[in-house]
């Protein structure tokens, strides 16, 4: 099975009410996700939602004369509020995400792609439009959107660290960014701040390997980036632990401050945690941002 179908199959398993995910996934898909009609609201858009009686102030061009001809009253068409139902999903595909401290654990990239796809499955089933930033993948509904999303998420980025592109995000929409956020922090802050300036609200999910949070190294250790561009050898790795943990804590604090300033939500998810836990947080975070 190629990468894209395999990714989609895994995401479908995580998000759907199937025995493989036991009762938790069934409750998540069936109870946590409201139906499409529960999400719809009138507003700017092109999709028909419902007819309603014309009210004072409605322009004449808004009246549906064909529907009104069947009654003694004038009717207008309510359009669906499309922008609020658009979610842009970004999963970091930089090479730093290809790390796993144990063969028993998924890489950060694998977990990020799975959570991004599973979130997309739930959003599409709830009537949302889901897309990727740039890359020509406009937000769409339906199974076709999921197939295209899986294909794009399976591609790799040659850079060690990636940054979400936000210039094409629809104003006043929602977004989900999944990454280890260990790259250029000012660039990440700039992207989220720029998105917030467009009225975009969303969620930041930091994916970390348990080794990246614990720093269990002692003695002679060679640290090397996945892409090989950075390499550091030390004979006393234990002496670096305090400084490393301080820098990680400082980075998390800056991400938390970024979330507070922009109104976004933030959480950290470790690859040794159940994927369903991360999906539940994502869905809850995006639901709160939709209110």
How many helices in DSSP terms? 10
Largest sheet: 5 strands, parallel
Based on the coordinates given, report the CATH architecture of the largest domain: 3-Layer(aba) Sandwich
Per DSSP E runs of 2 or more residues, the count of β-strands stands at: 9
Number of domains: 2
Provide the gyration radius in Å.
22 Å
InterPro entries: DUF58
Domain DUF58: 50-249
Protein name: DUF58 domain-containing protein
Pfam family, one: DUF58
Write up this protein:
InterPro entries: DUF58. This is DUF58 domain-containing protein. Residues 50-249 form the DUF58 domain. The chain is of the alpha/beta class and 291 residues long. Residues 17-45 have low confidence and may be disordered. The relative contact order is 0.14. It is built from 10 helices and 9 strands. 40% of the residues lie in helices and 16% in strands. It is elongated, with a radius of gyration of 22 Å. It has a 5-stranded parallel sheet with strand order 4-3-5-6-9, with helices on both faces. Strand 7 (221-224) and strand 8 form a beta hairpin. The longest helix has 22 residues, at 241-262. It has 2 domains: 3-36 and 82-289, 3-Layer(aba) Sandwich (Rossmann fold); 46-79, no CATH class. The two termini are 39 Å apart. Helix 2 (22-32) runs parallel beside helix 10.
Task: Give me a quick take on this structure.
The protein is α/β, with parallel strands linked by helices and 291 residues long. The protein is built from 10 helices and 9 strands.
């Amino acid at each position: 099975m190629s990468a894209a179908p395999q990714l989609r199959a895994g995401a479908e398993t995580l998000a759907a009410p199937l025995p493989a995910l036991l009762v938790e996934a069934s409750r998540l898909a069936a109870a946590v996700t409201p139906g499409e009609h529960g999400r719809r609201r009138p507003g700017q858009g092109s999709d028909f939602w419902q007819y309603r009686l014309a009210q004072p102030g409605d322009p004449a061009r808004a009246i549906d004369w064909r529907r009104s001809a069947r009654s003694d009253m004038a009717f207008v068409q309510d359009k669906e509020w499309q922008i609020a139902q658009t979610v842009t999903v970004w999963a970091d595909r930089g090479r730093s995400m290809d790390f796993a401290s144990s063969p028993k654990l998924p890489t950060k990239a694998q977990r990020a792609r799975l959570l991004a796809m599973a979130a997309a499955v739930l959003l599409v089933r709830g009537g949302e439009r889901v897309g990727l930033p740039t890359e020509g993948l406009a937000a769409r509904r339906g199974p076709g959107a999921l197939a295209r999303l899986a294909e794009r998420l399976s591609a790799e980025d040659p850079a060690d660290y990636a940054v979400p592109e936000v210039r094409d995000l629809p104003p006043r929409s929602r977004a989900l960014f999944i990454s280890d956020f260990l790259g250029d922090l000012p660039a990440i802050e700039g992207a989220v701040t720029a998105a917030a300036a467009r009225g975009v609200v969303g969620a930041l999910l930091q994916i970390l390997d348990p080794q990246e949070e614990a720093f269990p190294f002692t003695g002679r250790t060679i640290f090397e980036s996945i892409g090989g561009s950075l390499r550091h050898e030390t004979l006393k790795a234990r002496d670096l632990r305090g400084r490393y943990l301080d820098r990680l804590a400082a980075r998390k604090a800056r991400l938390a401050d970024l979330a507070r300033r922009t109104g976004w939500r933030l959480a950290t998810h470790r690859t040794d945690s159940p994927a369903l836990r991360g999906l539940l947080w994502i869905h809850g975070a995006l639901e709160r941002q939709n209110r």
